[in-house]
Hints:
2 strands; 189 residues; single chain; 10 helices; 62% helix; elongated; mainly alpha
Amino acid sequence: YEALPLAGAAQTAGIGNPQTPILGDVVSQEIPWRKAVREAVKNRRLPLWNRFILAGEPLLATQQPAIFHPFTWAGMPLSLAHAWTLEMTLGVFLALAEGFLFFLDLALSPVASAIGAIGWAFCDYLIFWAGYPLTPGAAPFPLLLLGLRRLARDRDARAVGITTGALVLITVAGHSETLLHAVAAGGLL
């Protein structure tokens, strides 16, 4: 109701000004995409096309619905609202765990590592973009740094596995730009 053609009908429908306009994309884009993914999976179809928007739009090719992200699949048995809450919670937990492991690898004490992990998991960037694909894309960044650090130091299969796991988590989060930023920043390490 903020733009034409519905702007003229807003007052008649009792729709006022948005109270939290920043949530517009989460409510009008991210959650409906997840609903379309869930509907396709529930009806045993590949989530390739979002049939709920006008004549439809690509769903899988858009990446942002995070079709391949493990948090999306973890929430499939739940209702959409509970699945969304689970995904946001798992994102914070992932950031905490990966931050802790990275700081611990820097030879910091467990207390200092925990403080660093809390600082990372609850930083403005991750909390502000909760609900968008930027948060699950950026949350594994400490794991990427840990993997790259171990690749440079140990050069073993475990380091390759950690790095690969972090890159996969960042990639399937659905935000290509975050992948670019993470790889570029990791390259500086």
